[in-house]
Specification:
This protein is an alpha/beta fold and 489 residues long. Helix content is 33%, strand content 24%. The chain has 16 helices and 26 strands. The strands form 5 sheets. Strands 11-10-9-12-8-13-14-15-16-17-18 form an 11-stranded mixed beta sheet, sandwiched between helices. It has a 6-stranded mixed beta sheet with strand order 19-20-24-21-22-23, sandwiched between helices. The chain has a 5-stranded mixed beta sheet with strand order 2-7-6-5-4. The longest helix has 18 residues. 50% of the residues are buried.
Length: 489
């Protein structure tokens, strides 16, 4: 693929050009290690590495042009330098142009929020396919090019990978694409240059403060997605969330709302729920779904509302809703031969953990029997402030709490557990076990359970690994539960 530099720069706010702008470009890269003769290199300032540190090396490797925020001390003759205010914004728009603006050739819907992004985006993808459309998915769990799966490394891929995947969806004949939009992606301008048909806001609670530092910064990052939506798009927000309408204060998009509690464009009410399903009153129609919990009722209402705003037929959507199945590692139930139920859920924020535990408690209250045994931990190199909160919320809602390792990453697992224990009082500590080894913790919880109980293993959900000291070791909560219960994987 060869592109004309001037054409690539059409949507870029260029401050200065040093050198010849009449260049043929053979590749677009942001990683200095991938630079080859004839390419256009974009120097971005990352969290850990600044691409501007490699400008001389990039020029020596034969780059035809370099986009940067600051010129090198001595520009190299024969290299074209394009100075911009923000390299991240420039890279996003260049990536879109490089792949011929694939998002404009799809009906692209982004889903943002703290919890529910993966479920909502995945169910929209599944619903579109159930209705006979080709669709793509970009999510934490997996990326799908219609029926072909691509590995998912980040919730929202980097600028180039994102547009490359969208281009593959166009080539595969996809009508729709659904993607999770992370706060990091908003802040780092990865979604700039994309054309969205719609955006969905699920909810907002404390998360990622290791990166954003404050909740206000976190809110602003999420809100930026809606600020970027065009007038032709819709903005569907959870009006029951206290910042739901804040998200749309400056949007040009058509604002629509959904709710389980108040007046909204799309309404839902939980009629009856069990551990393996729920009866909902959705937009005035009773529908049986294979999901449990009010949090999933919100996700399903968002899916329904987005589908309707995309113009899909109401009756066909309702039928498809009853056929949707839960996403891997999201309130995924495993029935034990001993008569108890194990649940694996990705809940890794205080709010998500509370939602899952409250759902379990509500269901058990109807049976009059059964205890809740919770296994949870907190990831290393992430927001430390939520650790005591997570432990306290879990202890308040569990008969027995087992604290264990999540993904300790570069931190000492015992130190993380000490920070979690700091949130517990003497009474809560009396029904808490601390078992750093996650395999042993899961086995212990299952062996403590009796008929009617629920064992919740929270935090990792679909993840098939545990990350320790920079190395990912194979570890799957679901596999571990099945081993203990002697159930074939």
């Amino acid at each position: 693929m060869v592109k004309d530099l001037q054409q690539l720069l059409q949507d870029i706010d260029v401050m200065r050009v040093v050198g010849d702008a009449q260049r043929a470009i053979t590749d677009l890269v942001q990683d200095s290690r991938k630079v080859a003769p004839g390419c256009l290199f974009v120097a971005v300032r990352g969290v850990n590495v600044d691409g501007h540190a490699f400008l001389d090396d990039v020029a020596a490797k034969g780059a035809a042009a370099i986009v940067c925020e600051q010129l090198p001390a001595t520009p190299v003759a024969g290299v074209t330098y394009i100075v911009v205010e923000n390299s991240h914004v420039a890279l996003a728009r260049l990536a879109s142009a490089w792949y011929d603006h694939p998002s404009a050739r799809l009906k692209l819907v982004g889903v943002t929020g703290t919890n529910g992004k993966t479920t909502t985006a995945t169910l929209l993808y599944e619903l579109a396919r159930l209705l006979g459309f080709k669709a793509g998915l970009l999510s934490t769990v997996r990326n799908m090019i219609d029926t072909r799966e691509e590995p998912a490394v980040q919730t929202t891929p980097d600028h180039l990978t994102l547009n490359a995947l969208l281009a593959q969806m166009v080539e595969a004949g996809c009508d729709y694409a659904f993607m999770e939009v992370s706060s990091h992606a908003c802040d780092q301008h990865r979604i700039d240059g994309l054309t969205f048909a719609g955006g969905v806001f699920t909810n907002l609670t404390r998360d990622h403060l290791d990166y954003h530092l404050t909740v206000d910064n976190y809110i602003r990052a999420k809100k930026r997605f809606f600020d970027l939506l065009p007038a032709t798009a819709f903005a569907l927000v959870n009006v029951d969330d206290k910042v739901g309408m804040v998200m749309t204060q400056n949007t040009r998009a058509l604002v629509k709302t959904y709710s389980l509690r108040g007046v909204a464009d799309f309404k839902c009410r939980v009629i009856e729920e069990q551990l393996d399903g729920t009866i909902l009153d959705l937009d005035g129609t009773e529908v049986n779904v294979l999901f449990t919990g009010r949090f999933n009722a919100y996700n399903l209402t968002a899916v329904y509302g987005a589908a309707r705003l995309l113009g899909l037929d109401r009756d066909e959507v309702m039928v498809a809703m009853s056929r949707l199945t839960p996403v891997d590692g999201r309130f995924e139930t495993i029935a034990a031969p001993q008569g108890f139920t194990a649940i694996v859920d990705y809940a890794h924020t205080p709010d998500a953990l509370v939602n899952v535990l409250d759902t379990i408690a509500d269901i058990l209250s109807h049976t009059g029997i059964g205890k809740i045994i919770t296994v949870c931990g907190c990831g290393g190199n992430r927001d430390k402030g939520k650790r005591p909160i997570m432990a306290r919320e879990a202890a308040l809602r569990s008969n027995t709490l087992v604290l264990t390792s999540d993904n300790p990453r570069d931190e000492d697992p015992d130190a993380i557990l000490d920070e979690m224990k700091a949130g517990l009082d003497a009474e809560q500590l009396s029904h808490t076990l601390v078992i750093a080894d996650r395999r042993s913790a899961i086995a212990t919880a299952c062996r403590l359970a009796t008929r009617g109980d629920v064992v919740l293993v929270a935090g990792k959900g679909h993840e098939p690994y545990q990350e320790v000291k920079g190395v990912r070791h194979h570890f799957d909560d679901r596999e571990e539960i099945r081993k203990v219960l002697n159930i074939a994987n």
